[in-house]
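Researcher: Sequence recovery benchmark, item below. Answer with residues only.
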């Protein structure tokens, strides 16, 4: 009877081990197939708990091949799976290759059960081995598609390519620019916020048609990524919208952010133009030869409120239905750019309806008694201040849904403490853990802690506030 129980537990443990292996694979995929990030996120997720798991696993060797040994590993695997809670799964080359490696590893456990004591170490090694063994094939496939996309661009030899980078504001600026260019030209741009090399490559291969302008966001979150775009194209014009404390978990410091963003100028053709936002504190301190600076100070600003932004041009007021004050800088950037594409300044003002809020970027909509401000795409302190400026101008009850600021590396605590101070006097619904720095020693009017965005929305339906601000929930697998 004992042997039967041991076999049953052995089968259950092997099945759970396979499930946990897939959980780790999903985690790796979410971290852009980078093994360094994968390891960091595993430790970030479990904190010191992962070390405790490994120690207890090793100590389990002393239990021998007993029922207690299998019971421990069954329950520890169940706990690991519960803590991850990732269920989405799809087959890929990496998954299939990982399965092949598992076929060599898992049978060993059946005959040498003590290997269970090294289960976490072995699973992580399998994933890392999968990554590096497939890397030559992956790189070869990438080069094929990049070459195919480059050849397609060469066929459309009249296309002018515009690249936009920045710590934040890339998508908003791109959409403003595209809307204006479309009033006179045929323009192509990827949907949503596609901004990686392979994402843009896929767009070009599958969706690009001949046009006058191709407008692209160029996203980078660590050093030496920008130069990879050179494999695919050169730029006719380039914009840098901002420099900020984004992706510091990978950039490490602000100097690296500046260096990497500025490297977009290396993608420019000889006659290409670089446009910089002079209202950004970091960009304004740089002296870039032949760069064209744009600034809100070049505009005649009238007012900014829940209705939008008003500007004066030739003694006439124009209302733009935009609720991001940095739009002023971007608008001047478009005006500066207009002379290079033969669009008249007056026509840009007359096309004020082309400038609108974009979903999840300080998007304002009407509620029965007030307003909903949705800034949930990529919350940062600068953007949140814009949201709070609008929220503070409204009458009635005001609630904020947030889970803090993510991807700050060593500045995680400091940035969230600054955010905590900005929320003083507001009703706050926080999604996350109780020891988060955002809610420690707070001075909110009210604090409600929830475990999920779904639960937060349910609370809001019951509370039914006059005004609501939704900030970035983020994803708990991202680096802190």
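Model:
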């Amino acid at each position: 009877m004992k042997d039967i129980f041991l076999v049953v537990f052995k089968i259950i443990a092997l099945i759970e081990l396979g499930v946990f292996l897939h959980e780790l694979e999903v985690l790796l995929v979410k971290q852009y197939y980078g093994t360094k990030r994968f390891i960091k996120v595993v430790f970030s997720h479990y904190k010191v708990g992962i070390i405790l798991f490994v120690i207890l696993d090793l100590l389990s060797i002393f239990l021998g091949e007993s029922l207690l040994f299998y019971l421990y590993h069954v329950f520890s695997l169940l706990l690991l799976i519960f803590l991850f809670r990732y269920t989405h799964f799809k087959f890929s080359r990496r998954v299939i290759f990982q399965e092949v490696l598992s076929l060599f590893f898992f049978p060993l456990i059946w005959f040498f059960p003590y290997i269970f004591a090294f289960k976490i170490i072995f699973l992580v090694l399998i994933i890392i081995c999968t990554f590096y063994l497939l890397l030559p094939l992956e790189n070869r496939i990438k080069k094929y598609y990049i070459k195919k996309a480059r050849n397609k661009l060469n066929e459309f030899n009249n296309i002018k390519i515009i690249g936009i980078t920045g710590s934040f504001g890339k998508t908003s600026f791109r959409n403003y620019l595209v809307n204006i260019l479309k009033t006179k030209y045929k323009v192509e741009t990827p949907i949503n916020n596609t901004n990686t090399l392979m994402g843009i490559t896929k767009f070009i291969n599958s969706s690009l048609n001949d046009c006058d302008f191709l407008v692209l966001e160029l996203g980078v979150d660590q050093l030496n990524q920008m130069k990879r775009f050179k494999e695919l194209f050169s730029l006719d014009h380039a914009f840098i919208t901002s420099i900020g404390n984004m992706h510091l978990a990978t950039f490490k410091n602000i100097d690296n952010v500046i260096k990497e963003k500025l490297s977009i100028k290396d993608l420019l053709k000889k006659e290409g133009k670089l446009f910089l936002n002079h209202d950004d504190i970091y960009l304004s301190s740089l002296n870039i030869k032949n760069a064209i600076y744009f600034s809100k100070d070049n505009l005649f600003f009238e007012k900014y409120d829940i209705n939008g932004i008003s500007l004066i041009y030739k003694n006439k007021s124009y209302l733009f239905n935009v609720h991001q004050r940095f739009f002023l800088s971007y608008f001047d950037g478009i005006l500066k750019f207009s002379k290079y594409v033969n669009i008249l300044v007056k026509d840009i003002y007359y096309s004020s309806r082309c400038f609108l809020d974009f979903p999840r970027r300080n998007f304002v909509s009407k509620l029965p008694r007030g307003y909903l401000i949705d800034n949930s795409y990529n919350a940062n302190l600068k953007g949140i201040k814009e949201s709070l400026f609008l929220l503070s101008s409204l009458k009635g009850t005001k609630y904020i849904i947030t889970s803090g600021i993510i991807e700050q590396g060593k500045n995680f605590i400091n940035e969230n403490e600054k955010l905590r101070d900005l929320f003083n006097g507001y009703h706050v619904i926080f999604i996350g853990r109780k020891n988060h720095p955002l809610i420690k020693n707070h001075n909110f009017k009210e604090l409600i802690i929830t475990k999920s965005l779904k639960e937060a929305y349910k609370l809001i339906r019951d509370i039914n506030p006059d005004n609501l601000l939704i900030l970035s929930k983020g994803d708990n697998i991202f680096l802190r």
